[in-house]
């Protein structure tokens, strides 16, 4: 693929001696505010390229390299626009209707990719009033490649009923809330791929670096709708845009990594670290925990969720819990995405933009204390107390030395929960919502669901499957 692209560029440049820009640099785009952004492309070797942005009308020149590439950097102003950028070499390229604001990457698999056209009901409801010239979408073409690429297709569009219909609903609702709260233009880049595995979004060399991640990469399930070779989406879709400055990443993925859940925490760390390294930017990374769904497995999904919770230890990350946002446990794609996007936006507004927002962190298990035949659990992010939204508290299990878990009763005491079960006189461990499709009803007073957890570290019977 890379050879073909280089050949195409060579033919274009040889035939026309034209300046060529990548797809990500185009009219209607949003550039990150108050930073240095790159403008780059291809031209004849030794050709003089001059770039002028209308916000300061300062001409910046560079000479094309021997490999026919060039790159310059422009300092962007505070938010605003529209602006124009003129790129002049042997030909002239004019980019118009450019805004300066905040740019976020929206990545993952199908629940990030899902659109109004794909069945998201609250996104469909937005279509009649969707027009917002201060929100722009870049919808990237899906490309897998064995080697790092220099270009990937896609196009920018102003948010309206046509462009929104086929853009990430989670990304849109995230961006809409940011745009309203910050009052600046928002650019959203959708590079999601339904059914994709995290291993494919990483450099292959990193997947092969550790035994657990290597095993995950070697045992990915083959499907007809997504590649299963480590690194190919990183090469085809991530590498070509790492020169484009972004504010951060939102991520919704994990369903396709149930094949070897123990590796998910390490894979997440490698993905965040490698993307930050390639962008040379310690940007925030906010992600969505897997929603409940009847997969029909044992503890694979619960273990992915557990590893997603562990990944919050990575600096500048945050996790949205969705156990209360599923309308049908037999549909892997919940058809309402507004609250998912809003919860992600609250993390960004609080942690990245330092704005005062409603509570945005779900309650998280902190510690336990055995008191007679009961276990008392303490939680973070429940300062004002916990509540059960409907009826008795659900989804608690308790076990003793036999490690056999029994459905438990539970009682709230402000921000602690007391758990017990008849017949378990000497309890040792508690699990909460620790299965494929839980239906928990325990929340903090702000209405955010408690993160699924277990207090034990007992073997789950999910030893390595497949062959190395």
Automatic annotation (TrEMBL):
GO MF terms listed in the record are: sialate O-acetylesterase activity
Q: Which key words tag this protein in UniProt?
A: Hydrolase
Check the record and name the InterPro entries matching this protein. SASA, SGNH_hydro_sf, SIAE
Cite a single GO BP annotation.
Answer: carbohydrate metabolic process
Family annotation (Pfam families): SASA (PF03629)
Residue ranges of the Sialate O-acetylesterase domain? 102-347
Q: Which SUPFAM superfamilies match?
A: SGNH hydrolase (SSF52266)
Which PANTHER family would you find in this protein's record?
SIALATE O-ACETYLESTERASE
UniProt protein name: Sialate O-acetylesterase
Its lineage opens with: Bacteria, Pseudomonadati, Bacteroidota, Cytophagia, Cytophagales
């Amino acid at each position: 693929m890379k050879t073909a692209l280089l050949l195409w560029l060579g033919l274009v440049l040889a035939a026309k001696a034209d300046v060529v820009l990548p797809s990500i640099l185009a009219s209607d785009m949003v550039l990150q505010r108050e930073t240095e952004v790159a403008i780059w492309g291809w031209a004849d070797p030794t050709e003089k390229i001059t770039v002028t942005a209308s916000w300061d009308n300062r001409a910046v020149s560079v000479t094309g390299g021997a490999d026919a590439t060039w790159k310059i950097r422009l300092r962007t102003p505070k938010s605003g626009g529209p602006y124009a950028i003129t790129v002049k070499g042997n030909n002239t390229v004019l980019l118009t209707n450019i805004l300066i604001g905040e740019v976020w990457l929206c990545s993952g698999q199908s629940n990030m990719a899902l659109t109004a056209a794909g069945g998201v009901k609250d996104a469909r409801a937005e279509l009649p009033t969707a027009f917002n010239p201060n929100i722009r979408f870049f919808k990237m073409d899906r490309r897998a490649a064995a080697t790092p690429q220099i270009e990937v297709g896609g196009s920018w569009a102003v948010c309206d009923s046509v462009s929104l219909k086929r853009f990430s609903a989670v990304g849109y609702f995230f961006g809409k809330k940011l745009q309203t709260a910050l009052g600046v233009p928002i650019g959203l880049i959708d590079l999601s791929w339904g059914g994709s595995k995290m291993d494919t979004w990483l450099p292959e060399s990193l997947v092969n670096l550790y035994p657990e991640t290597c095993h995950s990469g070697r045992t990915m399930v083959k499907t007809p709708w997504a590649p299963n070779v480590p690194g190919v989406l990183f090469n085809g879709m991530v590498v070509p845009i790492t020169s484009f400055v972004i504010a951060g990443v939102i991520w919704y993925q994990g369903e396709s990594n149930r094949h070897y859940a123990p590796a998910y925490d390490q894979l997440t760390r490698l993905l965040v670290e490698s993307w930050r390294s390639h962008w040379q930017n310690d940007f925030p990374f906010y992600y969505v925990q897997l929603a409940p769904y009847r997969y029909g497995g044992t503890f694979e999904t619960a273990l992915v969720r557990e590893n997603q919770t562990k990944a919050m230890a990575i600096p500048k990350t945050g996790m949205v819990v969705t156990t209360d946002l599923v309308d049908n446990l037999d549909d892997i794609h919940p058809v309402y995405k507004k609250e998912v996007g809003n919860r992600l936006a609250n993390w960004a507004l609080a942690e990245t933009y330092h704005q005062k927002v409603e509570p945005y962190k779900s309650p998280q298990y902190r510690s336990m204390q055995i008191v007679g035949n009961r276990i008392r659990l303490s939680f973070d992010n429940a300062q004002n107390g916990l509540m059960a939204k409907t009826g008795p508290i659900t989804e608690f299990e308790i076990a003793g030395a036999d490690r056999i878990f029994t459905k438990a009763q539970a009682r709230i005491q402000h921000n602690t929960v007391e758990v017990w079960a008849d017949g378990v006189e000497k309890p040792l461990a508690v699990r909460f919502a620790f299965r494929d499709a839980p239906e928990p009803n325990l929340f903090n007073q702000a209405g955010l669901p408690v993160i699924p957890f277990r207090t034990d570290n007992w073997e789950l019977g999910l030893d390595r499957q497949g062959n190395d």
